[in-house]
Amino acid sequence: MEVSECDEKEGGTMRITNNMISDRSLFNIQQSLNRIAKLNDKLSSGKEVQYPSDDAVIATRASNISSRLRELEQYKRNVDHVNNFVQSYDTTLQELSSVYQRIKELMVEGANGTNSVDERNAIATELKALKEHLVEIANTRIGDEYIFGGARSDLKPVDENGNIVTPMEADVKRKVNALGYSISYGVTVYDAFTLNNGKTAFSTIDDAINALYQGDEKKLSEISLKEIGVLANSVMEQFANVGSTSRMVEMISSRIDDLQVFNTEYLSKEQDADLTKVLTDLSMQQSVLNAALKSASMAIQKTLVDFIG
């Protein structure tokens, strides 16, 4: 009759068979190997929790923080993009203001009735050069985008003759969102180069040049000079708006930086492993494994000897 491995002896005690000892030894070795494998994963990755099965609560929290960090990175890119434009507007409008000021000075000089024909022609020549420079300013780009293009930043705002080609419907500010803030930014060609009556800085310069050739000081002083003054004031208003946007961008950027630092530290506390503790645990588990292997070797070897004998 076959004897069961778990047959009980008289008195109710369990009979421990050789197979039970072997199976238990192998189980303990396997468990120790699993623990060592997990500790090696922590050591190589530097993370306490890698999978939801390790700790569902911490894994979920870490996933949410990581998502928040990705969101902040996108906000940072948006703000940096706006900041590039704001800085470009800052320098470009300063240059534009200087050009308008020089044009104004030339018109004042040209309106002087004592100028000779050669002097008026010389002033007209400089005004032509300044008009060409204004065209270059109007077509300033950052990468592939024209900063004065409004909603159509892919189109050159002004052609080589000083004609505005940006459609009127593109005369809008652009917007980006960051941390719940809606940032409106942008100066269009209509903001900095046109008058309320529809005339442009370029046509005003053309009129001034024609007035100089014709010796019409009255037209130069009463019309062209006033128009360039209005354009210069408009640039200063836009410059103030750009400054306000710049301060807002700086505030939001600083806030994003603070949140990135906070969330990165929070994620580290939640997810990063204590490497000193991991190394200590790994050393201990290695000792446990060695002891288990030694014990199993002795038990299995003894069983085999007995079986052979």
Helical region count?
7
Helix content: 55-70%
Going by CATH, what is the homologous superfamily of the largest domain?
Answer: f41 fragment of flagellin, N-terminal domain
- Uncertain segments of ≥5 residues (pLDDT<50)? 1-10
Compute the CA-based radius of gyration. 40 Å
Kindly identify the CATH topology of the largest domain. f41 fragment of flagellin, N-terminal domain
Number of strands: 4
N- to C-terminal separation?
23 Å
Give the integer mean of the pLDDT values: 82
Which second-level CATH architecture of the largest domain applies?
Up-down Bundle
Oligomer: single chain
- General form: rod-shaped
CATH class category of the largest domain: Mainly Alpha
What are the secondary-structure elements, in order, as H or E?
A: HHHEEEEHHHH
Structural class: mainly alpha
